[in-house]
């Protein structure tokens, strides 16, 4: 590109000055070398000044191609209908699967002790001091135990495998300070480095490091269960409950490991515990320390205040009576009541569940009802919009309102060779629709 500048030329013979155009070449492809060097130096200076300029690619500058659908009746109605016919059957299938799970539930929050007079919750409450909160007061381990017994009957067999769960209600494991009160490095068998997150359950009164530290470990669920089955006209027989292989394999392999050199004899135990970390399961030596599966299950905090956690598996291989299923009949459940949930201003409910599973897991009707509810809403919206479109909807050609005062009106087409230029085809693909200017 060239730019023309007018400059004064040399005076003529008569002394007059004339303006002659001088052409300054601005095309960078044909500039002189000196001009190029100057330009390069200027660019270098400019690059230095804008060295912090962000990248100008389409991703960072948000210039990527985008598509925004135009919502019309022809697109929205099929979408609602397809969602309805997809979600409702899925929800029904989930409900059928959940209802196929057999489950026995018993709340033992206020169960009566074997003496037949006193609630176990009262016995355990009187034997403990302090309050369960972050503060100066701490619990002392409870050595007084209470046992309650519940007899029940199962009408139909529970197909194997069968599991035993414990459940808690109004128990907030999702509290921010509670969920943070742990040291994952310590639980992995390494040297603890986040002990400050465990305060006030980091050191005991003798200034020994607590293992495991934190409020979650300190509040470990300690109730135990034993299930008995009575065949016809016989005594109760204990059912083997396997307390291993109840935790997630990934948790046990990667997140929880005992120290390679064993536990230091100078470590302390959580204030609520009556056992040391390396003596949690005397019957199974490999199920102690941070590898204890009851501890692993408890440390995976629940998202809601009402939850259940796996406590044991029915060992179906140990007896022919319950090899294929947990048979119908009379049962007895013995509960060793150790865990306090009764306080002056707070009470959490305690439950025990005996249940089998389906391909979807345990009994849970929420997901099925959620699918059916959303599918029903989509169907109602589809039906409502369909009625509105049929009753009030207009096609695009009906939206154009042409009256007597309209400058152009529709007229019958005339032959092209008639010489009348007032008639012009509106669309070459549809020559019968024409406009004619009114007089």
TrEMBL record:
Q: Positions of the region Disordered?
A: 1-58, 413-439
**Alphabetical keyword list:** Membrane, Transmembrane, Transmembrane helix
Topology relative to the lipid bilayer, per the entry, is: Multi-pass membrane protein
Where does the source fall among the domains of life?
A: Eukaryota
Does this UniProt record's set of keywords contain Membrane?
A: yes
What GO cellular-component annotations does this UniProt entry give? endoplasmic reticulum; Golgi apparatus; plasma membrane
Query: Which Pfam families does this UniProt record tie to the protein?
Result: CDC50 (PF03381)
The residue ranges crossing the membrane are: 70-96, 366-389
- Protein name, as recorded: Cell cycle control protein 50A
Taxonomic source organism: Medioppia subpectinata
């Amino acid at each position: 590109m060239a730019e023309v500048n007018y400059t004064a030329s040399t005076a003529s013979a008569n002394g007059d000055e004339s303006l002659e155009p001088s052409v300054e070449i601005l095309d960078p492809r044909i500039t002189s070398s000196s001009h190029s060097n100057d330009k390069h130096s200027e660019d270098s200076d400019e690059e230095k000044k804008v060295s912090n300029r962000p990248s100008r690619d389409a991703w960072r500058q948000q210039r990527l191609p985008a598509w925004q659908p135009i919502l019309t009746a022809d697109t929205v109605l099929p979408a609602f209908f397809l969602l309805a016919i997809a979600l409702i059957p899925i929800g029904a299938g989930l409900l059928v699967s959940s209802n196929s799970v057999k489950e026995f539930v018993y709340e033992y929050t206020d169960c009566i002790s074997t003496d037949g007079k006193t609630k176990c919750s009262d016995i355990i409450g009187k034997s403990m001091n302090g309050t369960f909160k972050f503060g100066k007061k701490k619990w002392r381990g409870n050595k007084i135990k209470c046992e309650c017994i519940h007899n029940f009957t199962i009408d139909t067999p529970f197909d194997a495998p069968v599991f035993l769960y414990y459940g808690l209600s109004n128990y907030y494991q999702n509290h921010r300070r509670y969920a943070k009160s742990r040291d994952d490095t310590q639980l992995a068998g390494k040297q603890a480095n986040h002990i400050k997150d465990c305060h006030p359950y980091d050191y005991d009164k003798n200034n020994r490091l607590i293992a495991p530290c934190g409020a979650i470990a300190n509040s470990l669920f300690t109730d135990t269960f034993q299930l008995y089955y009575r065949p016809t006209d016989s005594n109760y027989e204990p059912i083997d409950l396997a307390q291993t292989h109840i935790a997630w394999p990934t948790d046990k392999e990667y997140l929880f490991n005992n120290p390679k050199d064993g536990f230091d004899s100078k470590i302390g135990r959580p204030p609520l515990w009556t056992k040391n970390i390396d003596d949690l399961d005397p019957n199974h030596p490999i199920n102690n320390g941070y590898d204890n599966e009851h501890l692993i299950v408890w440390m995976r905090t629940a998202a809601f205040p009402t939850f259940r956690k796996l406590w044991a598996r029915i060992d179906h291989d140990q007896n022919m009576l319950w090899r294929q299923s947990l048979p119908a009949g009379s049962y007895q459940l013995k509960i060793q009541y150790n865990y306090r949930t009764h306080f002056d201003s707070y009470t959490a409910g305690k439950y025990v569940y005996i249940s089998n599973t389906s391909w979807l897991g345990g009994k849970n009707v929420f997901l099925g009802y959620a699918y059916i509810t959303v599918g029903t809403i989509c169907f109602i919206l589809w039906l409502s919009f369909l009625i509105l479109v049929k009753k009030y909807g207009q096609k695009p050609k009906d939206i154009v309102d042409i009256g007597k005062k309209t400058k152009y009106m529709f007229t019958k087409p005339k032959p092209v060779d008639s010489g009348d230029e007032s008639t012009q085809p509106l669309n070459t693909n549809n020559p019968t629709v024409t406009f004619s200017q009114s007089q």
